[in-house]
Amino acid sequence: MAQPELDQPNGAVATGPATPELTNYTPRYIDIGINLADPIFRGRYHGKSRHPDDLKAVVGRAVEVGCTKLIVTGSSFKSSRDALKLAKEFPGTVFATAGIHPCSSSIFSPSHHKHHDESQSEGEDGDEHTPACDPDPSKPIPDGDGVDLVRSDQIIADLTDLIAKARSSSSSSPELVAFGEFGLDYDRLHYASKEVQLHSFAVQLALAASLKPQLPLFLHSRAAHADFVRLLKEAFGERLERLEKGGVVHSFTGTVEEMRELMELGLYIGVNGCSFKTAENCVVVKEIELSRLMLETDGPWCEVRPSHEGWKYLVEFEAKAKAAAAETVDEPEKPKQQQQQGKKKGQKKEPEVPDRYKVVKKEKWEEGAMVKGRNEPCTIERVARIVAGIKGVSVEEVCEAAWENTVKVFGLDS
Ligand SMILES: [Zn+2]
């Protein structure tokens, strides 16, 4: 695949191929939650084309930083199919999940007008974006509408069919590696009511439990912990003893107690930028056992921002890396060049946390640059560095633990 240029002409960029690590370790990452099927990675925003399709460059940048495996989230029929297509296009690098996200669960509702056709059509809803991670509690859809049970049966039959077809693919590399994304999201009841979400989760859990062999689960839980755990137990037993392949609760933002309960049930915890927003979030991340940790970006959403509590660990990391680089006498050339470049730019103060790649607004898209506000998998190194900072362990320990956990649960080649 296309490898983007390392050296950007504009000095505003990056620190070259690798921000000096404190050891000689070369990190390796698996992004367990990346919404690469979102049209935004084809340059399409809300139905309008804003720049060329740069999906290959996005994958290229990921691979370049060491994120050599991407598990692309399927969150609806369309995105699950698109994720599976991407897995075919990038064998051994891209893998897919298939399921119906709580925010896409309105297809189970009687008031949903696209009804069962949605599960079949390819072209319709061509620019459906994945739901953003920010809650909007302002316009919840109330319960009371019930669920369309006839349509529900059809949806589950279609999903069963989609999974069976994906599993029978003759490709040498597995394409479908998990059931999901599915679960509950009570922060976002404006997409689907609680009763519809509960139904969607329950019927998909029943399907997941019936698969032979089962698939690992890619789960989403927001502000819904008690119901989430109750339904999991109803499907797989009090200790989830009938859950054959395990699962991960991704984009975790719950409490320490909730996280411990999930770990005790044998589940893994996925963290991304949304997991570091507040000091409370970071306390939770500190308590995640390395043996239960997975890393993700949830791009195009959930980027780490300077306003987030976790940002300070990136500042710390850069400061340490800089100090280590200054002490290195073996390689005086590169730092010098970079310093001179920095001086030429003169007026611009060097950011505390430099971007590895140039970042431009989508209106000013250019080849090799990232798009402002569109998170992508190459930023997973930030997630790993923040987790390491919070837990007070090395990036190597974080990366290796997450890699091993992910390879094991999703059955990937190491
Ligand atoms: Zn999610």
TrEMBL record:
Domain of life: Eukaryota
Chain segments annotated as transmembrane: none
Any Pfam family: TatD_DNase
GO molecular function, a single term: metal ion binding
SUPFAM superfamilies the UniProt entry points to: Metallo-dependent hydrolases
Keyword Disulfide bond attached: no
Region span, Disordered: 1-20, 107-145, 325-357
UniProt keyword terms in alphabetical order: Hydrolase, Metal-binding, Nuclease
Protein name: Endodeoxyribonuclease-like protein
One Gene Ontology cellular component annotation held by this UniProt entry: cytosol
Biased composition (Basic and acidic residues): 348-357
Family: Belongs to the metallo-dependent hydrolases superfamily. TatD-type hydrolase family.
